Amino acid sequence: MRYTNALVILVSLVLLTQSATANVLSAGDYDNFRNLDLKMLSIGDDIYALVTTQPGTHAPDCVIELAFKFDAVQADLHGVGTLVALAANVTDHADELRVIQRLSLAGRSFIEQLKYHRLILSSVMSNCAEKDAIAKSQDVSRAWSDAASLVQSIIKKIEASPQ
Known about the structure:
Structural class: mainly alpha
CATH topology: Four Helix Bundle (Hemerythrin (Met), subunit A)
Largest sheet: none
CATH class: Mainly Alpha
Number of domains: 1
Low-confidence stretches: 13-21
């Protein structure tokens, strides 16, 4: 479903060729998402290394849960970033309003879902004996805080814009 929504949004971006309007968001807003995405890719690589380099037959449950939660949040953030890119590039005012409305909903949903992901991750990591996973969960927590701040700044920008 996420991929279908992203595909529809990207196709819409290509089809929008009407007169330019003053966009609420800019390419700089998307660049901020891109930079965070690069940071999260690096953390994801580290988590993958934790999962694949465990002695024995498989990684501890807490390491696997860390990987699942991280991937879920990363996918959701990528969806919000795609909407930011679209909003920054749309040229038709009516289309911009539709994208901004969808982005506002997606951003709020991301913030709410992140609260639950944090609670679950905290619970899982409290019972984890794997030191590297605990350290990596702290990196994840910082990245999630950065993501929440970035999404909240976009929501504030949207709310402050005259529509």
